[in-house]
Amino acid sequence: MTVTEKLQEMGVTLPSVAAPLASYVPAKRVGDQVWTSGQLPFVDGELPAAGKVGAEVTTEQATELARTAALNALAAIDSQVGLDNVTQVLKVTGFVASAPDYTQQPAVINGASDFIGELFGDAGTHVRSAVGVAVLPKNSPVELELVVETAR
User: CA-to-CA distance for 24 and 7, rounded, in angstroms?
Assistant: First the structure.
């Protein structure tokens, strides 16, 4: 089953590629890899929630937002090479805007990792960083970057 077919089976539609907030492109192909810029969890151009995880945003909400940010990153990758040409996911980097005492960043970024694993199967296993930060653009609770390998 292709990734596109798997998305259809899951009832998931790729969103439009999010417009950059500054001077960068959403994704860039380099050889047989595609690197995404940081993707926020926009839905129809809006953040569904804002603030720090562990304060204004719960872990559960942030986990769902991480999944949404991953979907936005996949849309950026699709615009470069088509998702069915991704041979494996290499790296996920997740940033979590965290309350000072919040330590569950890995659980939040599991929202992205679990979704990628479900979508890509074994090709979705990846290395990862889950980093707590003071603030993210637009007061977003999460931001996500992906690096994938593609068929040449």
Answer: 28
Q: Are 13 and 7 contacting, i.e. CB atoms less than 8 angstroms apart? A: yes
- Which residue has tokens 């790729």? 14
Per-residue model confidence as pLDDT tens digits over 58-108: 999 999 999 999 999 999 999 999 999 999 999 999 999 999 999 999 999
Phi, psi at residue 24, to the nearest 5°? -160, 170
Tokens, residue 52: 């720090």
Looking up tokens 């890899």, which residue turns up? 33
pLDDT tens column, 108-122: 999 999 999 999 999
At 86, which helix (H) or strand (E)?
strand 86-97
Instruction: Kindly provide the residue ranges of all beta strands, DSSP E only, lying in 56-99, ordered along the sequence.
Output: 86-97
- Token readout for 143 is 């931001």
Place of tokens 């290499």: 90
CA 86 to chain centroid: 15
